[in-house]
Structures are given as C-alpha cells and as structure tokens.
Amino acid sequence: MSLAAHGHPPELNPTLCRARQKRLCDYLEDQNLEGALFFDRHYVYALTGYWHMQPLTPTAVWLTAEGKATVFTHDAEPVAPAADAVVGYVPNHLFTLRENLPGCIMEVLNPLIGSVASLGVCHQTPSAMVEGPTCKDITYDYQHIRRAKDEDEVEALIFSIECADQVYARAKAMIEPGISEVSVMAALHETAHIAAGELLSGWGQDFQAGAPGGFARRRAMEDGEIYVLDVGVGVRGYRSDLCRSFAVNGKLTGVQQEAYEKVMQTFELGEGFLRPGVSCSEMYEAVHSELDGWNGYAFFHHAGHGIGLDAHEVPRINSHWDDTFAVGDVVAFEPGLYHESLAGGLRIENNYLITDDGFRKLSHFPMEMV
Questions:
Q1: Domain 151-361 - what CATH class?
Q2: pLDDT digits (tens, 9 = 90+) for 1-22
Q3: For residue 80, pLDDT beyond 60
C-alpha cells in the first residue's frame, strides 16, 4: 500500500531528528559557533519533529552547540518529540495579529540567549532583531549538512511524490481543448490538498499550455498544444518536484512524437550518471549536448537538482556548480525540448534516491503524453 493511501503524512523519527541535530552540532563546534537559530518552519520540523501548521505565524528552533533544542511556538499543545524545551509566545491580542510577528518570538528568545556570543542563522532568521550574539549566515553550509536524506525523510518525500501522482492522474483526466489553465490548476490544487490531508507547505510553478512553463493564465488550452505541468507538492516541508507533459487533444503530431522519443532516449542516458562519485556537471553537459540544438530545438535550463526541504537543493545538475552525486541524495532529473513547432515544448521529470550501487526511482506516474 502506498504511503499516500493512509491519508496523512508519515511522522518523522525522533531518533533521526536527534541525529540531524548532532550533525549540525558537529558543524557548530567546528565553526566555533555556540548555537544555531532557524526561523524556517521546514528546518524546525526536520530537526525536532514539530510541524507548525499555520503559515501565517512564525516558529523557531534554537539549538545549542551542546545539543539542547528549544522550539518557540504559540501552539497551545505542540508536539515536538525531539525538542528539549518548548517556549510559548503571544502573536495576537483578541485574535488581532501583532505588527511584528518575528519580533514576538524575539521578545521571549532574546532574554534566553543573552550570554551567547555567536549563532549560526538561516536566511529566514531576523538577525537584526537578535540582541547580543553575533550572527553568521550558515544557509549554504546547512544545505550541505542536511544533504543526505535519512530514512524518515525519504519516506516523507515518497509521500509527497505519491500526492503528486494523484495530481497528474486528475490532470490527465480533465485536460482538453477549451478548458482554462486556471480551472485546471485550481482542481489540481484541491486534489493535492485532499491527498496530503492537510494544508500544503509547497506547490508547483508551471501550469501553462503551449509554453515551456509559467503560472496558469485565464486562457483556454488550444487544440494541438502541449500542457507542461511541473508541480512540487510540499507536505510538512518535504517537497517533491515532478513534471509531466500532456497532449491537450490526446494525440501528438509527428514532430511532437519525435521530440518525445528523443527526450525518453535522453532519460536513459542521464540515468546512467545517477550513481555515487559521478560529476553532476558532466551529466549536465552530456544531456545538454544531446538535446540543445537537436532538430533546431532548445534545451535551455538545468538538467536537475536535489530536492528536500527547499525547492532546489544540493546537488545541482548544472554546469555552474561542481557537485558530485553522493549516497543519500534525492534528486530530480528533467530533460526537455522546446520550440514553436512543438506548441511550446515538453519536459518530463522524475525523482531518484542515490544509493550505494546506483539509484532508486521514487516517482512512478506513467511518462506517456497521451
């Protein structure tokens, strides 16, 4: 039975949350930092098992270099199995939100960290409000620290992938000439919410027909177009990233069929690089040289990237970075071809776990366009 069939996301393992804390603490000690302060609710969840459902209000975690984790939240009965303490704060008066919500956390946090000299912080931490400690941005380094996904994180990503599978099944059943892009996107959003069983923490970015990508428009899909659908269903911070392309009228032209077959051949080429120790930029160059310029068509974007708590993570399958695949990476691979004669273009994207001897494909929705 699939994880999504249970109707709710799998819980993180508190022991593995503690292991993730330990890896961060080892880094803090190496960098002579006395702790870390994160306001990203995805990071809070990964480290402590506490999921802050309400996106309107902030949450935070303070991890000391010695390994004590404190969560800050306004929830009345928070469940934080891998936290040592939970501190409450007041975000509203008579249910009217206060003006500076991060500042509400800092009101209770600053007195606790007065004797701390230095903190590592992430991109969402309001460093200007931190009183006392010197703040060092460790967003880049932290992405590398959490790069290898633990077993519970892989299960969380599989759940989000299976939610996306339901989105694609709904899309394939409803797209046809004349249907509006906005109405399809709205229906798919509903499907993803029901599959997740709760408010999504992430969503997709490409919902246009007859174009390489972009947000849905108030226009009808036209006969002969290809619908490039790229969604990243996020559930409790863990985010899949999958793309499928569908013929709007249920059939492909000759050139569209040829382009599809070329992309599928390139899938086989690219998957041959998905193993530990292989250069990601070499994979990009192989995919790019195979696709860009073929029959005069373009391939103008990366060949993929890591996924997890952010939309794009390490490793990057991109010539602008010099990454190497490693065991525990969860990556998206997304070859495509684009040209006006293809009615925009097509792209197909799968998700993979890098293993000791190669890869495990995590996404299984059919790749056919009709």
A1: alpha beta
A2: 455 555 689 999 999 999 999 9
A3: yes
